[in-house]
Write a structure and sequence with these properties.
Endonuclease Iii, domain 2, binds iron/sulfur cluster, mainly alpha, Endonuclease III, domain 1, globular, 14 helices
Length: 248
């Protein structure tokens, strides 16, 4: 299990590996075989990553990547961004949607980073221990546990498991976690089934899988390498073979 994530999320850990932990070890290997370990465009620099994650919510990859590059083209350092006008930031990021709200968060975060950590904020964040980093990041406006864990996984190299919308959907369909859990609960529970050391490979693999095969409305179960361990996939397959039998 991803012990560090559970500690950060304040969850008591089980002592023994569960069946789901073993299944997800197999799933991780299959996902890596299918997709490799793509970077998803993330940054080693935690400051850039904070804004990348902030811009990525509820929009497409192409648009948030465009917004992020425009933001850093116009404001290359944290002090530039801390002094920026919200309206100018809004014009850089509007393409990703929710321009006004995101721009307010971006400027506020930049001011806090600059005030607390100065121009070398990225380097200072990298020296924090995991609990300090999590506590600091989740105090920033618009940065919840999932976003903080993304920064810690992608930029700081910690073995933590963020549960985004793709990850939650697939784990629900597979039957690893209950359907319809509030996101915060899913973020607390799912890391308990993630094999130690596999957090990033599994997270990235599930995100890719959610974009290519396990689509939100129409999962392509017939082409899925996780079919044999997926509750929804098995159910769908049983229904379609019953339908085929009744037609023939
Ligand atoms: S079998 Fe279907 S529902 Fe299950 S993970 Fe694969 S695509 Fe998603």
């Amino acid at each position: 299990m991803s012990k560090l994530t559970q500690t950060l999320m304040g969850v008591r850990r089980r002592r023994h590996a569960s069946a789901w932990e073993r299944r997800l070890a197999v799933a991780t290997a299959r996902l890596v075989e299918a997709y490799g370990t793509p970077t998803l465009g993330n940054f080693r620099n935690p400051v850039k990553e904070i804004f990348y994650i902030l811009l990525s919510a509820r929009t497409t990859e192409r648009l948030y990547q465009r917004a992020h590059s425009e933001l850093f083209r116009k404001f290359p350092t944290i002090s530039h961004l801390a002094k920026a006008k919200v309206s100018t930031v809004e014009s850089c990021v509007a393409v990703a949607g929710f321009g006004g709200k995101r721009a307010r968060h971006i400027v506020r975060i930049a001011k806090l980073l600059h005030r607390d950590l100065g121009e070398s904020a990225a380097r200072k964040i990298a020296t924090l221990d995991p609990q300090q980093a999590f506590d600091y990041l989740t105090r920033l406006p618009g940065v919840g546990p999932k976003s903080a864990l993304c920064v810690m996984m992608c930029s700081l190299g910690h073995d933590v498991f963020p549960v985004d919308i793709n990850v939650q959907r697939i784990l629900e369909r597979m039957g690893a976690i209950r359907k319809g859990l509030p996101h915060y609960r899913a973020q607390q529970i799912a890391p308990g089934y993630v094999p130690a050391g596999a957090s990033k490979r599994l997270h990235v693999g599930l995100v890719e899988h959610g974009r290519k095969i396990c689509l939100p409305r129409t999962p392509k179960c017939a082409s899925c390498m996780l079919l044999d361990m997926c509750r929804l996939g098995q159910r769908t397959r049983a229904v379609s073979s019953r339908t085929r039998r009744s037609i023939s």
